[in-house]
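Recap quiz, item 2
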Amino acid sequence: MADKPTFSQEISNLMYAAHGSPVNNCIQCGTCSGSCPAVEFMDQTPRRLIGMINADLKDDVLDTNTYWVCASCYHCSVRCPANIDIAGVMYAVKRYSIWNKTYADDLVGPVFSETFMKTIARSGRSYEPILAPTYIFGFGAKEFFQEVQGATKMMLKGRIPVLPTKIKRLKKFRNMMKRIVPVGEEE
Amino acid sequence: MKKYAYFPGCSLEKMALSYHKSSMEATQVVGVELQELDDWNCCGATTYFHLDEILANTLVARNLAMAEKEGLDFVAPCSACYKNAYFTNTYIKEDEDLAEHINYALEADDLQLEGNLNVHHLIDIFADEVGPEGIKEKVTNPLKGLRIAPYYGCQIVRPRKNGEEVEAPQFFEEIITAMGAEAIDFANKTRCCGGSLLLTNRKAALDMIRILLYNAVQSGADVIATACPLCQVNLEVYQTQVNEEFGTDFSVPVLYFTQLMGLAFGIAPKKLGIGSELVSTLPVISQFIAKEAR
Ligand code: SF4
Ligand code: SF4
């Protein structure tokens, strides 16, 4: 019987395309953490997260907010001397956690991602007002108020659409999506 | 006239309509034709890759396949859309497995993608195809004395494409200089604006925006130029919230580079979508509006 894959193998398996070197090439130099504009908001720095993945500390990794705070700016990826696509790893951990529903309850990221996907399955385009309510409920009263104020100002300047746009070949588009993952209601 | 398949992306339909309008105007002046892809779909922005990488690549591939069918190269004005398109187009050539998956799905919409097309960000068209000299030739209303911060953001330059300069790019500065304006030395020009982090980790995102605004203002910017709708909205629309959060008083206009270029080409502000900003641009640009704007 084959050995159970390590967490770093599981993560590598979630990165299909050409994404640089495997995570276990990490030399723990810290260049990624030093380049990260969001590091002070992370529970664990990118360097430590990579180290934790390699140490097979799966639960601890999934418990961090690090991969959701990552803004996908690729500063770490272009600088890593071991050619690891750290931003790609962050995406892979996000996917792992969404699929396994292991993220912390108060995170808004997963809800946002899932809603976004449903919106596209419905119309083929993304549409801000449908997205807004889903993440806005995760906000406190002050943030909620600020967000509504901002949206109202945008609306007054004609910058928020009243109705969502739909693509023309929507049915074929949905069938295309279904060939990859089962989404949306049956046609 | 060189023609491209133009992929506006969801933001440009409304939120960033001014970017769309000004892109159309500015490209026309320099003799580039943008032909909007018929029936394009959302490319998944940065969000889709959280869910399923193959699906994300498939969504992007559908748009690319339609461009390839027309025999045209692909142009996106949004940095996130551009990055997605660039990499899907690269991966499909490098990874046979992925190509097979994607093409199986595309078949459901009678499409196929080989990857025989080039993918550009709109700013590349001005930087490379037209070039600073080509821009300069068309300037009738040089923006003399206007101090512009060239904000690259992330995804025009990162991840690295074809060994390009990712640490200290200069092409945005060259475009600004060609408009007759002054490109200020903006240390944080490639620092991230937070992207869609604003929706998911507000505290981190507002702080990232604050740092950028502070750096631009300290460096003497009259206006920040962007090449991405997400950057524009983060830096402009969220200024009020940054001010509330940190007790600052930022009020710096943020325009698309195509809007500034349009002014330099003597185009009337209205045609460039100027006037839909939340931070008024008039105090800064009124002196740069051509007397006989076309
Ligand atoms: S930059 Fe690369 S090698 Fe250095 S700690 Fe980060 S992941 Fe490891
Ligand atoms: S991609 Fe993510 S982890 Fe890497 S530097 Fe940017 S925000 Fe930090």
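The longest strand of chain B covers residues 2-6.
The pocket of iron/sulfur cluster (ligand 2) is lined by residues A 32, 35-38, 46, 70-76, 86-87, 90 (CB under 6 Å).
End of item.
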